[in-house]
UniProtKB/TrEMBL annotation:
<protein>
    <recommendedName>
        <fullName>DoxX family protein</fullName>
    </recommendedName>
</protein>
<keyword id="KW-1133">Transmembrane helix</keyword>
<dbReference type="InterPro" id="IPR032808">
    <property type="entry name" value="DoxX"/>
</dbReference>
<keyword id="KW-0812">Transmembrane</keyword>
<keyword id="KW-0472">Membrane</keyword>
<feature type="transmembrane region" description="Helical">
    <location>
        <begin position="122"/>
        <end position="139"/>
    </location>
</feature>
<feature type="transmembrane region" description="Helical">
    <location>
        <begin position="94"/>
        <end position="115"/>
    </location>
</feature>
<dbReference type="Pfam" id="PF07681">
    <property type="entry name" value="DoxX"/>
</dbReference>
Length: 149
């Protein structure tokens, strides 16, 4: 593969690190105190209750609504773990698949919001490119430890 300036693997590492920064920013900008008090999940519950797809409404009611505090921790710490994992390149394939799944959940929940669709679509696309391009081969803890070769 011919590239300018960096190798193909290094460009994939740049993409992986950029996606990690994006996840970390998603975590950083949230008001943690309000999230842990339930505002984030309450907002999502309101969105889910008005959703056009019954599977989203009922799925949210069964999985998330009964345990808002736990789900707030899951969302916040998943975004933090994804960001750090991708930036450091640690357990990168796991982080890429986890991020892809989380983006798909966000995308389905926010199907009416064009801005959210764009952000989550781009993040999901980067995850797929990183996964199939094996973005852990350069500048990563995975590579240093000899993981996923």
């Amino acid at each position: 593969m011919d590239t300018i300036w960096l190798t193909g693997g290094e460009w994939l590492a740049v993409l992986r690190i950029g996606l990690g920064v994006w996840w970390l920013e998603s975590w950083r900008h949230k008001d943690k105190k309000a999230w842990f008090e339930g505002s984030g999940i309450a907002w999502a519950a309101d969105v889910a209750a008005k959703h056009r797809w019954e599977v989203v409404r009922s799925g949210f009611a069964v999985v998330v609504k009964p345990r808002p505090k736990v789900m707030a921790y899951v969302v916040l710490y998943a975004e933090l773990a994804l960001g750090l994992g991708l930036i450091l390149g640690f357990l990168t394939p796991v982080a890429l698949v986890g991020g892809l799944l989380l983006n798909l959940v966000y995308l389905v929940l926010m199907i009416h919001d064009w801005a959210e669709q764009g952000q989550n679509s781009m993040m999901a696309l980067i995850s797929v490119v990183g996964l199939f391009g094996m973005a852990w081969q350069d500048w990563s803890v995975d590579n240093l430890l000899g993981l996923f070769r």
